[in-house]
Write a structure and sequence with these properties.
The chain has 163 residues and is an alpha+beta fold. 26% of the residues lie in helices and 39% in strands. The two termini are 24 Å apart.
Length: 163
């Protein structure tokens, strides 16, 4: 469960986009959804989630995103948080390790407080080729607090120095 929760806005998303080299012209397009506000492109949510998670790992030297899956839309006033599951730690020598993980971006939840005692179904993290609708069905049945709250699923790794 990662903290802090970041408020999403267009200027912040541009910073994260450039930091994680996730820029594409389509990411800067926005579309109004009536009274719901502006929808932020899913491609911009990935670096926000990665930044939240990276902050918990000191001395990060490299990040590598292996796959992403965009789940629910994010509005310009939503708060973005993250939950991660580490599935492997690989020693790269006496002073470095690679942490392989799957991170879930959340919206409008304080992950540390709201999810402290929640059992998130492992299928959400590990089941291959799980479609967003199938993921939502699992959440409705097993973990309703996360229903319609997941924004992105990122499988990635970080290399960090240790010692």
């Amino acid at each position: 469960l990662h903290q802090p929760v970041n408020k999403m806005d267009l200027s912040q998303s541009s910073i994260y986009c450039n930091l994680f080299r996730n820029a594409h012209p389509v990411h800067f397009n926005t579309k109004r959804y009536g009274e719901q506000g502006i929808a932020i492109s899913g491609g911009l949510i990935v670096p926000v989630v990665c930044n939240i998670v990276s902050a918990d790992y000191k001395n990060v030297m490299q990040e590598e995103i292996l796959s992403t899956q965009h789940l629910n839309p994010v509005r310009d006033t939503d708060l973005i948080g993250a939950v991660s599951l580490i599935h492997r730690i690989e020693k790269l020598g006496p002073n470095a390790e690679r942490i392989h993980m799957i991170s879930l971006g959340t919206r409008n939840l304080d992950c540390e407080k709201d999810l402290e005692k929640v059992q998130i179904p492992l299928d959400i993290f590990f089941q291959a080729n799980l479609k967003p609708a199938e993921m939502e069905e699992i959440l409705i049945n097993c973990c309703p607090i996360l229903s319609r709250k997941l924004t992105v699923k990122v499988e990635w790794s970080v290399i960090r120095s240790i010692g």
